[in-house]
Design a protein that fits this description.
A: 276 residues; mainly alpha; MetI-like fold; 2 domains; 11 helices; 78% helix; B: 304 residues; alpha/beta; 6-stranded mixed sheet; globular
Chain lengths: 276, 304
């Protein structure tokens, strides 16, 4: 536990050091708060933006979707929560669709020939390129954001499913054969678990693409979202808010990517004997 | 040497024919494009494996010993000839000819007991019966204490013993072992040799064992099949009538070992010379191919 404590202290020290550097940059650029926010303003904004707002909501969904527009405090928290809910929907759809398409690609050579290159293309296309099409198809609303999130992460999840299942080591396949495993037993007991390490890495990559796509999509139109917080801050020349929101976006990203997915990945790699 | 060969000649087969390999050939190709060439991994090999015997394939790498095992296992199909197992042609792999691999092939996501139960689960045995059998065979390989451990927590020898228990649990009539101990340290290998001999004497299973180690073959086998390469074929079959379990330092084992090593040495000499020739030929061919801008058909493996 003491090493954990040490880590916390070191992290705080590092953040403190960054703040000092930041303040120095602020002074060096002429202390113009209307052009470059000093750390103290950003901290103040974070404090307000993350504090629970004063209006009492009925349910947490109402809270997340922000039915009380007059609420000022806690805006950042609300925006981030709404964004997270949105990305969970989009990523969830991508997960179901990606795994399904991946399974189809592995199970049929014809399907692979037909849409294999297309999946690669989708994965290579920056998700922001889907925005114009999404707006034409769905209009300026939630659906077009979800569509962009879906297209952003679909490729990674599909490829991970396909590659994981395709790279099942020959020895495992032969073990399954020599024990006379039936096709379904082979899929469920050998191929799927053997594919997990590759699959989890793909899920992680898909998640980070989903989060990026989401924020690009949210810049499109006004909603309760992290993206709108940024555009509003721009419109109001609210530099502290802009910095605060960006910091929170990074933190959420790190929290999920580095902690949730990386932990899961590390555990699977250790169990599967792939750890360094 | 002559007294040794006397002993060898006396060995007789009492059991029925378990596996009959009949005029089997298998070709592979290496490289692609103009440099591609096909070679015989095994060519016209015929061999009987008898009920209850311990047979070893020994030979340098590339002599087709693993290919032969894969053909018997049913992982691969022969280009010519056929493999008959218990009177029926082999068409695929199955738990009656259970294979043990060099890389043990334990599933890392299952613990020791679940790994041992894998084959039984494939057969659809109920849970209680699976557990009972798994425990029986785990006891046999002295691993019951480690039944909840995962493969990454085990040593190399323990992994291979788990794999042996997993194989025995489905009660196959025959075991095919593809260099199962070659990745282990000498001490562990020595222990496993002893354990395997006692398992074999207890269960009387037919075992086909592939190895490149002459010591290993001499220690374990009833009959040693010495293989030659390019094309892969049987050079000589040597019966061994020294009783099990065998000690490493047995004088007759040492004699037998040097006899086989001599055979193999000739084979290796031939191989080295031939490889030198081949490299030269390929170089020549690629030079002339470049100058003539025409693809050449090189058939080095088959020509000699």
């Amino acid at each position: 536990m003491s090493s954990f404590f040490r880590k916390i202290v070191l992290a705080l020290l590092l953040v403190g050091l960054w703040m000092i550097l930041w303040q120095l940059v602020f002074i060096a650029t002429g202390s113009k708060a209307w052009k470059f926010a000093p750390p103290i303003d950003v901290l103040k904004d974070l404090w307000e933006g993350l504090a629970p707002h004063r209006v009492v909501s009925e349910t947490w969904q109402e809270y997340v979707l922000g039915v009380q527009p007059e609420a000022y405090h806690g805006e950042i928290l609300r925006g981030l929560a709404a964004s997270l809910l949105r990305v969970v929907y989009g990523y969830g759809i991508a997960l179901v669709a990606g795994v399904t398409i991946g399974l189809l690609l592995v199970s049929s050579r014809f399907v692979e020939w037909l849409i294999g290159p297309l999946v690669l293309g989708i994965q290579s296309l920056p998700s922001i390129c889907w925005l114009p099409l999404a707006v034409l198809w769905f209009g300026l609303n939630e659906k077009s954001i979800l569509f962009v999130v879906l297209m952003g992460s679909l490729g990674s999840i599909t490829m991970a499913t396909r590659d994981g299942l395709r790279q099942v080591p020959l020895t495992y396949q032969r073990v399954a054969s020599t024990f006379g495993a039936a096709p379904m037993q082979r899929l469920l007991w050998v191929n799927i678990p053997a594919a997990l390490p590759v699959f989890i890495s793909g899920l992680k990559q898909g998640w980070s693409f989903a989060w990026r796509s989401l924020l690009a999509g949210e810049l499109l139109f006004r909603s309760v979202s992290a993206g709108t917080l940024l555009t509003d801050a721009r419109d109001n020349f609210d530099y502290p808010r802009m910095f605060a929101v960006m910091i929170m976006i990074v933190l959420v990203s790190i929290l999920i990517d580095r902690i949730l997915f990386a932990k899961l990945e590390a555990r699977i790699h250790a169990r599967w004997g792939l750890a360094k | 040497m002559s007294s040794r060969t006397d002993i060898l000649e006396k060995a007789v087969h009492t059991g029925a024919v378990k596996v009959a390999v009949k005029f089997v050939s298998k070709q592979y190709s290496t490289g692609d494009g103009a440099g591609a060439r096909r070679f015989f991994a095994v060519k016209d090999v015929s061999l009987n494996v008898y009920e209850g015997e311990f047979l070893c394939f020994v030979g340098p790498s590339g002599c087709g010993k693993s290919t032969l095992l894969n053909l018997i296992a049913g992982f691969e199909k022969a280009d010519q000839g056929e493999v008959i197992f218990e009177g029926k042609p082999v068409t695929g792999a199955g738990p009656d000819r259970l294979v043990l691999f060099q890389e043990h092939g334990l599933f890392p996501w299952l613990n020791v007991q679940q790994n041992v139960e894998f084959g039984l689960r494939c057969k659809g045995l109920p849970k209680s019966e699976r557990r009972e059998k798994a425990m029986h065979y785990l006891k046999m390989v002295h691993l019951q204490r480690f039944r909840h451990s995962y493969p990454f927590q085990l040593s190399g020898g323990m992994k291979q013993r788990t794999a042996i228990a997993r194989a025995l649990a489905v009660e196959p009539s025959m075991l095919l072992m593809d260099e199962p101990f070659s990745a282990l340290d000498p001490r562990t290998r020595d222990i496993l040799h002893l354990e395997l001999q006692s398992l074999w004497m207890q269960t009387k299973k037919t075992i086909v064992f592939v190895t490149h180690s002459v010591e290993e073959a001499v220690r374990l086998a009833d009959r040693i099949v010495i293989m030659a390469s390019q094309p892969g074929r049987i050079r000589r079959v040597v019966p061994v009538s020294i009783p099990h379990p065998r000690n490493f330092f047995d004088a007759s084992l040492v004699d037998l070992r040097s006899l086989i090593l001599k055979e193999l040495e000739e084979e290796l000499d031939k191989l080295v010379k031939k490889e030198g020739d081949e490299d030269w030929q390929i170089e020549e061919a690629s030079i002339s191919a470049r100058s003539k801008k025409k693809t050449l058909d090189i058939d080095v493996a088959d020509g000699i």
